[in-house]
Automatic annotation (TrEMBL):
A Gene Ontology BP annotation from the UniProt entry: trehalose biosynthetic process
Reaction catalyzed: alpha,alpha-trehalose 6-phosphate + H2O = alpha,alpha-trehalose + phosphate
Name of protein: Trehalose 6-phosphate phosphatase
Purpose: Removes the phosphate from trehalose 6-phosphate to produce free trehalose.
Entry keyword RNA-binding: no
This protein's UniProt keywords: Hydrolase, Magnesium, Metal-binding
Organism of origin: Paucimonas lemoignei (Pseudomonas lemoignei)
EC numbers, comma separated: 3.1.3.12
Amino acid sequence: MRALFSEHGQARLRELMRPGVLCAFDFDGTLAPITSDPAGAFLTPEVLERLLRLTAVTPIAVLTGRSLADIRGRLGFEPTYVVGNHGVEGMSEAAELERHAAISQTWRQQLAVLLGGQPDIAKDILTEDKRYSLSLHYRAAADQAKAAAILRDLIGQLAPAPRLVTGKCVFNLLPPDSYDKGRALVELMKRSGAASAVYVGDDVTDEDVFRLRRHDVLSVRVEYMSNSAADFYIPDHADIARLLDELIERLSSRKGNAASPAAGPESG
């Protein structure tokens, strides 16, 4: 994983930033800063202003772990595509979604019983019901390592067994045969007709995209992590504005060049 703002990173941006490139982003920790309370996450005015400018020059996708009902009220703009629940919402057919919802509710009932037997940590666990998936947040636990170990054990007792996606002090429980962010991005490229894509994320949930390792996809992680499969990284969330500026500038200049008529011979 190399620095995006290095010479090599800039070369890759020049290569992939063509008209119609799909620019896709995670939300929490990427477009919006991480907060202790998930309900408090919103775009900063600086990031929102840049996203509005970016939508004018290329299609944008937001791929998030949040439900569609939750994320739409936090954006402040209308992306070309919005995919929720780590790839489940926005990609699956209605019948499949209802099956996912039934599985999720079964897990919630099972967890209510299982957590009832763990009074020491139950009070510190926030169960986020996103209808088609569940997220178990343990950031408030006094001993996070202990809480994580207990939750892993409880999750192992659920039936049917979920597809488990870990995050920053959170376990995401997804239907075993559902879309992930990687599959979702590939499908969105097909639907949009994009010849290339840029994807920016910050968490374990984004590794499904990073692991694609496709030449037509440039993957960027927010903050360096030695074992990430991402191609490049930016140092921290504060650099997302600079990255958006880079994308806007490159696409705007190419659009301008494409719109300029070729110079003809001088008339005499």
